[in-house]
TrEMBL record:
This is Muramoyltetrapeptide carboxypeptidase. Keywords: Carboxypeptidase, Hydrolase, Protease, Serine protease. Residues 1-19 have a biased composition (Low complexity). Its EC number is 3.4.17.13. It comes from Pigmentiphaga litoralis. It holds the Pfam family Peptidase_S66C.
Length: 353
């Protein structure tokens, strides 16, 4: 097992099942809620509940989880009420059943202070990125970018590493996430970890729901987006002044697109090369996160360390910092700001399942 480059402590490698570091609390609760797209097959929720229970969680389900109105999991009012119920029920964790589209329609109607004050930890990815970034922008509260009920736990089989990383992260056991990144730029820094789905993040530019992070570690992923569209969104972030303020840009999976003869060899590698030329910020690739079966669970809004060496990248979480407080980790100063005003805006209409 490779050593953490920051303090030479052993870490958990994303290429192998992580090793538990301390005993987990007994059966933490997870509440399943559908804030975006409709769940088309209710059996996936039954399987998700079964699989999550097998992982040691006590699972409960919002009464509106299987609703459908047009393409949504109920009307806007019904989905808003579901989020309000999620903030007041007893389970510690709230997991989105799926993404799709719909969260952007709710952003200016959510009581963000109530969400943060609830003490719940919200989990999801894709369309749920809008909720997570708005929560961070408005309150500074940490959420988890990670698995969702239908996509990750609703199939006949659950990816073992996804489940293991999910459990370790929720129990506060995962200290360091290491992953192969053969072409990663050199970096050794600290900053607030933030980001998620690229299209959803870009949709928040110009609204009060985009966090104002300086010196952050920005992670990005997307699905069904051709490389030129990925580049165009990155260019928008760059021209909006977001990318240059970061300590590192960490790219996850960009999947399910099709190239054509018109591309003439232009692909995601071309996007990576363009990004490195245009933005003088270290770029790290191959983060195990996105619309893929094997994904990490990442704390959005938490301060992390990031370092690369010998074709590997390492994300160092707060548990690691607590357990190795005696080490001298001098990475310089990293400013970060959160916009905590309470104006209202709205997002976009891009569909991410």
């Amino acid at each position: 097992m490779p050593a953490c480059p920051i303090c030479d402590a052993p870490d958990a490698n994303a290429a192998a099942a992580p090793t538990p570091r301390r005993r987990a609390p007994a059966r933490p609760g997870i509440y399943l809620v559908s804030p975006s797209g409709a769940v088309l097959d209710p059996e996936t929720l039954v399987r998700a509940k079964t699989h999550l229970s097998a992982e040691g969680f006590k699972v409960s389900m919002d009464r509106g989880a299987s609703l459908r109105h047009e393409r949504f999991a109920g009307t806007d009012a019904q989905r808003l009420a579901a989020l309000q119920r999620a903030a007041t029920q007893k389970s510690q964790f709230v997991m989105a059943t799926r993404g799709g589209y719909g969260m952007s329609r709710l952003l200016d109607r959510i009581d963000w202070k109530a969400m943060a004050d609830s003490g719940k930890t919200f989990i999801g990815h894709s369309d749920f990125t809008a909720f997570q970034l708005a929560l961070l922008a408005k309150t500074g509260a940490v959420s988890y970018a990670g698995p969702m009920a239908v996509f990750d736990f609703g199939g006949k089989r659950v990816d073992d590493l996804t489940a293991a990383l999910f459990g370790e992260t929720l129990r506060g056991e995962l200290e360091v996430l290491s992953f192969d990144s053969p072409d990663a730029d050199p970096v050794d820094a600290r900053g607030v970890l933030w980001g998620g789905n690229l299209a959803m993040l870009v949709s928040l530019i110009g609204t009060p729901y985009l966090p104002k992070i300086k010196g952050g570690v920005l992670f990005l992923e997307d699905v069904n987006e051709h490389p030129y569209r990925v580049e165009r969104m990155l260019l928008q972030l760059h021209q909006a002044g977001v990318l240059a303020k970061q300590k590192a840009i960490v790219l996850g999976s960009f999947t399910d697109y099709k190239l054509s003869p018109l591309d003439g060899g232009y692909d995601m590698a071309s996007v990576h090369a363009w990004l490195r030329r245009e933005v003088k910020v270290p770029v790290v690739t191959d983060l195990p996160f996105g619309h893929v079966k094997t994904k990490a669970t990442l704390p959005v809004g938490e301060r992390v360390g990031i370092a690369t060496e010998d074709g590997m990248a390492h994300l160092v979480f707060e548990a690691h910092e607590r357990n190795h407080a005696g080490h001298d980790h001098d990475h310089g100063e990293h400013d970060h700001d959160h916009d905590h005003d309470h104006d209202h805006g709205h997002g976009h209409d891009h569909d991410h399942a």
